[in-house]
């Protein structure tokens, strides 16, 4: 066992992340693992797999649990915290963690008022119901709250890479993650739509574009986020080609606007002289 935190642990909400954390606690040597979920089938499966117990807030054994993970849907975190705070449990110095990317540890305020050490740990990773501790390896995890040092230790024990996040900046942290992950799909959807207008089927356009996306991501891994990753007309300041793109997209206003916005952001990576950069920006800002 790595340290005393993992002697006993409880996980409330055993969806993809919760079930992964439950397995991870066992991997770290947890002797007494308690779990709870509203779906009976999940509980039955995981209790059998991990020799876990179902959380009973009125059971004397639950008093000894030092480490609690709340992995319920985001809009249920505060409600869950209030319910736990009203349970006949001494929360003094117990560690309570929620794993939302969107919300800060202030969602756990009812427990903090009872003496618990509260924080949030958000892994930049997607999980499945069958994931294990290996899914945390090398993954960045945002940590904020009143006991960040404990959070750092837990993330490191899981094999992840801890990042401190200031509580008041948690929403910006989450917006960054959503932009990189979810909005990438919106960008790809827009590119596929343009391909459809060019005469391709949706499937053909997607299959054509995915190697380009993969190659660009590989370049970012190799070179970092700079001009070395950039190819195409923006990288060389080719005003004529960009002008033709804008002209071709005039009949599709939403796609035209999206092209202009993303191109302006991308232009900042291009290694261009000041005059060319200014001319390109003027072109992308033009509504003619």
Care to give the gist of this entry?
This protein has eleven helices and eight strands. It has helices spanning 16-27, 40-50, 77-85, 109-112, 148-158, 170-197, 202-223, 233-236, 239-248, 253-267, 274-285; strands at residues 8-12, 32-36, 53-54, 67-70, 95-98, 117-123, 140-145, 161-164.
Strand content: 5-15%
Classified by CATH, the class of the largest domain is Alpha Beta
Helix-residue proportion: 40-55%
Q: State the major sheet.
A: 8 strands, mixed
Count of discrete structural domains: 2
Mean pLDDT: 95
Q: What is the strand and helix layout of this fold?
A:
Layout: E1 8-12, H1 16-27, E2 32-36, H2 40-50, E3 53-54, E4 67-70, H3 77-85, E5 95-98, H4 109-112, E6 117-123, E7 140-145, H5 148-158, E8 161-164, H6 170-197, H7 202-223, H8 233-236, H9 239-248, H10 253-267, H11 274-285
Helix pairs in contact: 6-7, 9-11, 10-11
């Amino acid at each position: 066992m790595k340290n005393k935190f993992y002697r006993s642990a409880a996980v409330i909400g055993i969806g993809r992340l919760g079930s992964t954390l439950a397995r991870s606690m066992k991997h770290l040597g947890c002797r007494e693992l308690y779990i709870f979920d509203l779906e009976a089938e999940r509980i039955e499966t995981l209790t059998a797999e991990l020799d876990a117990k179902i959380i009973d807030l009125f059971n004397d054994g639950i008093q000894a649990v030092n480490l609690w993970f709340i992995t319920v849907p985001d809009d249920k975190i505060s409600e869950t915290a209030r319910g736990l705070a009203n349970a006949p449990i001494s929360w003094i110095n117990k560690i309570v963690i929620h794993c939302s990317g969107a919300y800060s540890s202030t969602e756990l305020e009812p427990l903090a008022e009872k003496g618990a050490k509260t924080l949030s740990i958000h892994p930049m990773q997607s999980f499945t119901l069958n994931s294990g501790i290996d899914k945390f390896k090398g993954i960045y995890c945002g940590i904020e709250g009143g006991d960040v040092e404990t959070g750092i230790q837990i993330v490191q024990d899981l094999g992840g890479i801890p990042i401190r996040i200031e509580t008041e900046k948690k929403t910006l942290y989450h917006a960054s993650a959503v932009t990189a992950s979810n909005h990438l799909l919106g960008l790809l959807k827009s590119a596929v739509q343009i391909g459809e207008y060019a005469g391709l089927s949706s499937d053909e356009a997607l299959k054509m574009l995915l190697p380009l996306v993969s190659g660009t991501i590989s370049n970012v891994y190799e070179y970092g986020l700079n001009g070395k990753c950039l190819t195409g007309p923006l990288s060389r300041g080719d005003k004529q080609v960009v002008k033709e793109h804008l002209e071709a997209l005039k009949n599709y206003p939403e796609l035209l606007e999206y092209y202009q916005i993303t191109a302006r952001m991308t232009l900042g990576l291009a290694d261009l002289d000041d005059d060319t950069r200014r001319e390109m920006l003027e072109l992308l800002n033009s509504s003619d």
